[in-house]
Each structure stands twice: as C-alpha cells, then as structure tokens.
Specification:
CATH superfamily of the largest domain: Tetracycline Repressor, domain 2
Helix content: over 70%
Number of domains: 2
Strand content: under 5%
Structural class: mainly alpha
Radius of gyration: 20 Å
CATH architecture of the largest domain: Orthogonal Bundle
Distance between the termini: 60 Å
Number of helices: 10
Oligomer: single chain
Largest sheet: none
Shape: elongated
Length: about 200
C-alpha cells in the first residue's frame, strides 16, 4: 500500500487493475521478459518507486490478475456447490459458470497464455494452487455423487480434470459444432453417460 496515503481496499484494487491494464499492453506488444518495470511505471503514469508500493516485480503484476480471476471462479463454484440441489445440477451450474468466465475473457486468455509460462516457478506454483483448489471442489462433488449413488465408483480427480479440460474445446476452437453452451451440454452428457449405445 502506498506510504503515507490512506487508501481503501477498493481503491487499491482499482489502482492495481489500472497498472495491470497498462502492463498488459506492454507485455503483448514487447513480451513479458522484454518489458521493464520502468516502462510499466511510465505507462501507468507514476514513478518506479510508486509502482513498487503496489507491486514489487513484474511477476507480481501478472500473478495478481491471474489469482484474482481464479479467486472469482473458485468463489462462484463454492457458492453453487453449497446449494441444496442434486449433485448433477451443481456440477452443471459450475461448468456453465466456468464457461461464462472463459467466454467473457477469451481474447485476454489467448493473449496471456504464453506470457504466464514466463512467470517464475514459484509464481507458477501459486497459479497451480488456485487451479488445484478448483479441481478439488469439482472432485468433491463427484465423490459426493458416488456416495449418494448418483455416480458409479470412478477416479474422481480424473473425471474432475476431464470436465474442466472440456471447457477448452468449447471456447477455443476453429471448428465449433454449436454455441459454447450447446457444446458444453454435449460434453457434460458424454461425461455422465459415455458414448456407449
């Protein structure tokens, strides 16, 4: 937080988002490694020392955004998981919400995909922790369904990964077979029932 300046959490969040937006343009234009902290500070309309009050490194800027997005996805999924409705419907709603997030940020996701690979190993582990938390939430719902007899005994983590990975071809495809929502419903049906006649 900037020294000597009272600032609310909302103001801090907004300022960090503005810095990320400025940094993003540079990352995409020049590349993550080729962009300097000084350039990010100038693009954000501040001095380098002021930028350090918000983010200590370039990694922190990109990591902050990714973790913020993952937090939103996980929060929405937890809210759905806690609803008193059948487990299949909770899973379906979580997958739809995940799809909404992906569709809303499709272009940004595509642009950032390779830049994220340039984060330090420690930063990548933090991103992975957020993804694993989401996988574990989906996995827990599948295990709940196994316990209540909705699903047969399966490798719940593998099924969770399949469900989450299925988001990618529904959004990022050059050969769509319907709307992302329709393709997701087809994938969900295949995972639940298989392709056996």
């Amino acid at each position: 937080m900037p020294k000597g300046i009272p600032i609310t959490e909302e103001e801090l969040y907004c300022r960090r988002h503005e810095i990320f937006d400025s940094a993003l343009h540079l990352f995409l234009e020049k590349g993550f490694n080729e962009t300097s902290v000084r350039e990010i500070a100038e693009a954000s309309g501040m001095g380098k020392s002021t930028l350090y009050d918000y983010f200590k490194t370039k990694d922190e800027i990109l990591l902050w955004y990714i973790e913020d997005e993952l937090k939103d996805v996980n929060t929405a999924a937890r809210e759905i998981a806690n609803q008193p409705i059948p487990v299949i419907e909770r899973l379906r709603q979580i997958m739809r919400k995940n799809l909404d997030f992906l569709v809303a940020s499709k272009e940004l996701y595509l642009k950032l995909f390779f830049e994220v690979q340039r984060l330090t190993i420690q930063s990548q582990k933090r991103v992975q922790a957020g993804r694993h938390a989401y996988q574990d939430l989906v996995r827990q719902l599948i295990e709940d369904g196994i316990r209540d007899g909705t699903f047969r005994p399966v490798n719940s983590l593998l099924v969770a990964r399949l469900m989450i990975t299925a988001m990618t071809p529904t959004v990022f495809t050059s050969r769509p077979t319907g709307s992302p929502e329709n393709m997701l419903e087809n994938v969900f049906d295949i995972i639940l029932h298989g392709i056996q006649a």
